[in-house]
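Protein data:
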Amino acid sequence: KKNLGLLMRGYTNVKDVDYALLYKREPEGHRLGLEIDGELGILNLYNELTYLWGSKKISMPGSYQGNLLRNYFMNVLGASYRFDNDLQLTFEHLFNGIGDSDNLDASNIRYQNGVSTTLNNQLTGISLAYQFTPLLIGHYDMKFAWDDSYQHNYSFIKSLSDNIDFTLGGQFNLGDRPSGANWQNPNLKSEFGRLSNFFYMDLKYYF
């Protein structure tokens, strides 16, 4: 049996405000989305809303109760501002209706199966981007889950030539660590406490 998808998008602009409407039929159900993007004084504001309905009834694996997927609402509300020195500041808040702050282990199952993007249903973030020189750009972002865990990401991108970029970055995760005996029963205590810290280097050559 083959599953056929359908995607429809529409765009318009009314009084300098952009609107986008999306409908997507996918194996999980029907997804409807609305995006609003405009300026309010010195701020760029945007709001992205999606709703999934008609979801399939798929039982959670193992001893977990409930369904892997359910109808849910998601909302991303953001604001950004560019300072005179070209520092870009962005603030975002995510409400994820399928996140389960009271049962992070079950939420992690949904995350691992690509159903959810976060474990908690509330997540707040802030990001900074700054061009130190035309050849060196820095990025930093901090995510705060409402279970008192944090994630910090940073990267520096250096252009070595017209076709070579070098990136140095890392990620720090702070929060209560899992207390379970194994990966099958992790007993997660926080969104980001389950993740490891790491550093990385990346060299890209374009041709």
Q: What stands out?
A: The two ends are 42 Å apart (CA to CA).
